[in-house]
Write a structure and sequence with these properties.
- This protein is mainly beta.
- It folds into 3 domains: about 375 residues, Pectate Lyase C-like (3 Solenoid); about 100 residues, no CATH class; about 70 residues, Immunoglobulin-like (Sandwich), CATH 2.60.40.
- The protein is about 10% helix and about 30% strand.
- The chain has 6 helices and 36 strands.
- Strands 2, 3, 4, 6, 7, 15, 17, 19, 21, 23, 25, 26, 27 and 28 form a 14-stranded parallel beta sheet that branches. Strands 5-8-16-18-20-22-24 form a 7-stranded parallel beta sheet. A 6-stranded antiparallel beta sheet has the order 9-14-11-12-13-10, with no helix packed on it.
- The longest helix has 15 residues.
- The radius of gyration is 26 Å and the shape is globular.
């Protein structure tokens, strides 16, 4: 499991919370509850635990080294362009079998990158050298802007190859994981699929994703991303004719009026398993950033790739840092330090609130978009630190959804929902530094100006969870939740947060909890809490006690009713959970039990857990037809 220390961390957090309780209040969210007991896969809180490399089911791999830049004759610190030598080592691996590819080691020193690098071969990693503390000793130095200010110095890039399967044949409720698909019988267990839905002429899908409160922007409808504004990926776990079961619940509804279509991702040709590690990326840029005026220092993009990663890197004097684009999914960006070296952009001085917040928003100067997702899904950014202020530190834009930013800190971080229809993203366990820029969302929405009518900042179900700020300016509180979008915002455990009093639906739809003085959310990192709950769900394993002697279940599969017979167990507690771990049935009894299905049990797999007074437990898998 990716986070082997989750249980220990949870224990420490519990102990800490118990000690701290004397001075403050540790509270649960109504959306989650202790250990996620309140969570509803059909509710307003998405399951973000699938974000990251391989849905965060596995740790980032340690790929063996197969080549070394020093063998090419390239020399560090000589101010000569090294991009051709590095590109040649990347290209050489294209002819190797997949299992013979690996990491290209780039020794310590400064290597000049004066031409774009393309990393487009699955299984290839660029790895720098580190000191004893893990700090990168390898530097990629960009002396000049790229020839085109729209290009990136380094691209991890591919081109999705998909196999058409068919349309979803009937509406499917949110929270379910089973569809009837035209030609679904051509799928197999283990296939990785993409489900997409399109906004119809009546704009009902975009309206739904705006909480039926806002409308999509006219300029967004002119973009190539429109009308396909919902994209979702999952693995096939069962095939029964044209009925397909997937490994995760639907995060929204499927409606046939939204043209839901299933494609199988061709993972033999999709670019994946690429990485960049242990490198400082330094731009020759001493100029403070002026909004939308570029010199061309855009460091790295991930475009149409799956299950890739960037870890333990520094981004120095950037204009753009790391950008995930092109429907890329399940990528992890971990351990990023963003700092200025040639530039020195100080924090604005403390001023009266009326002018200070405006200055804090407008006078960033450190770069435009250090970390962003444009039309990407279930990507994970973690362990990041901003040493200075940038224009928009953390950005989602252009139908980006279900991405996670966690465990980060900065001096005055802005959570930037940049219009063109992002929705349902998570920010959790982040120390803002100074809080005044949290709601500095940008992206123009100039009504009547062609190309600038991008609509509200975001759609529904954005989640801000466990957000703190320790470098507090006296007498300045965090601003209220905005009203430009943000319908059904989950605003949980945000220190000192409060909701506007304006009586409009998009504000009244927002849920603000655990935000008063001295209140703390019991799970400060929602991503970790959801991941722990999902990966420790007994239904995820086959390690069940053989229970036919003491507990008999029949019939199985069942439809309208089923019975449980207990032998020599005395009083028992019966808990029945659905495949996502939600408790759907509870009973304490001394007798055998007949359970009638009065609509509680939908078709699918369930876990029956029978507990005794002497702490013995017996498990059974139940199938409802």
């Amino acid at each position: 499991m990716k986070y082997k220390t989750i249980k220990y961390l949870s224990l420490l957090l519990f102990v800490f919370g118990t000690v701290f309780l004397a001075q403050s209040q540790v509270k649960e969210s109504s959306l989650w509850g202790a250990n996620g007991v309140n969570w509803d896969p059909a509710g307003r809180l998405p399951d973000f635990s699938y974000a990251g490399y391989k849905s965060s089911n596995e740790p980032l791999p340690d790929i063996p080294i197969v080549s070394n830049l020093s063998t090419t004759g390239a020399i560090p610190n000589d101010a000569i362009d090294d991009s051709a030598a590095i590109q040649s080592l990347i290209n050489q691996q294209a002819s190797l079998p997949r299992n013979q590819r690996g990491a290209i080691f780039i020794p310590k020193g400064t290597w000049v990158i004066d031409n774009p690098l393309l990393l487009n071969i699955s299984g290839v990693v660029l790895r720098g050298e580190v000191d004893l503390n893990g700090k990168p000793l390898t530097t990629f130095y960009f002396p000049d802007a790229t020839s085109s200010t729209t290009g990136y110095h380094i691209s991890m890039s591919g081109s999705f190859k998909r196999i058409n399967i068919g349309s979803v044949q009937s509406d499917v409720s949110q929270g379910l994981n089973q569809f009837n698909v035209t030609a679904g019988n051509t799928l197999s267990v283990g296939d990785f699929i993409q489900l997409e839905q399109k906004d119809p002429a009546d704009e009902s899908l975009s309206s739904y994703l705006f909480g039926n409160i806002d409308a999509i922007g006219a300029s967004t409808k002119d973009l190539s991303i429109y009308p396909t504004i919902f994209t979702w990926y999952a693995y096939v776990t069962a095939v029964n004719g044209n009925t397909i079961t997937f490994d995760r619940p639907l995060p929204i509804e499927v409606r046939t009026t939204w043209s839901p279509y299933i494609r199988k991702m061709n993972m033999d040709t999709t670019i994946s398993e690429m990485g960049i590690e242990n490198i400082s990326f330094v731009c020759n840029n001493s100029e403070a950033f002026v909004h939308n005026i570029y010199r061309g220092f855009k460091i790295l993009q991930l475009n149409q790739v799956i299950n890739c990663w960037v870890r333990n890197v520094e981004l120095v004097d950037l204009e753009y840092g790391i950008s995930i684009r092109g429907k890329s999914c399940y990528n992890t960006i971990s351990g990023v330090v963003i700092r200025d070296e040639k530039r020195n952009i100080p924090l604005p001085p403390v001023e009266p609130k009326s002018t200070f917040i405006y200055r804090m928003k407008q006078q960033a100067g450190g770069g435009h978009h250090p970390l962003e997702v444009y039309q990407g899904y279930y990507n994970l950014f973690e362990d990041f630190e901003f040493k200075e202020i940038h224009w928009h530190e953390l950005t989602v834009e252009g139908t980006a959804a279900f991405n996670v930013f966690r465990k980060g800190k900065g001096v005055a971080i802005a959570f930037d929902n940049h219009r063109n229809f992002p929705y349902a993203n998570l920010w959790t366990n982040i120390d803002l530094g100074r809080p005044e820029r949290m709601w500095w969302n940008s992206g123009s929405n100039q009504i009547g100006v062609p190309g600038r009518e991008r609509g509200p900042n975001c759609g529904f179900r954005n989640t801000y969870w466990g957000i703190t700020y320790k470098n507090i300016v006296p007498d300045i509180e965090i601003e209220p939740a905005e009203t430009d979008g943000f319908s059904y915002l989950n605003y949980i455990g945000v220190e000192g947060a409060r909701k506007q009093s304006s009586p409009i639906d998009k504000v009244n739809s927002q849920l603000v909890e655990v935000s008063g003085v001295g209140e703390w959310i019991a799970q400060p990192d929602l991503f970790l809490a959801q991941l722990e709950r999902r990966t420790t769900n007994p239904l995820s394993t086959d390690d069940f006690v053989k229970n036919t002697t003491f507990v008999k279940l029949h019939p199985n599969p069942a439809e309208h009713e089923f019975s449980l017979e207990f032998k020599k167990l005395g009083k028992v507690t019966v808990n029945i959970y659905d495949v996502f771990g939600k408790l759907v049935y509870f009973k304490v009894t001394n007798d055998n039990l007949l359970v009638k299905n009065n609509g509680v049990f939908k078709s699918g797999l369930y876990l029956i857990k029978v507990g005794t007074d002497d702490n013995r437990f017996y498990y059974s898998k139940l199938i409802i037809k």
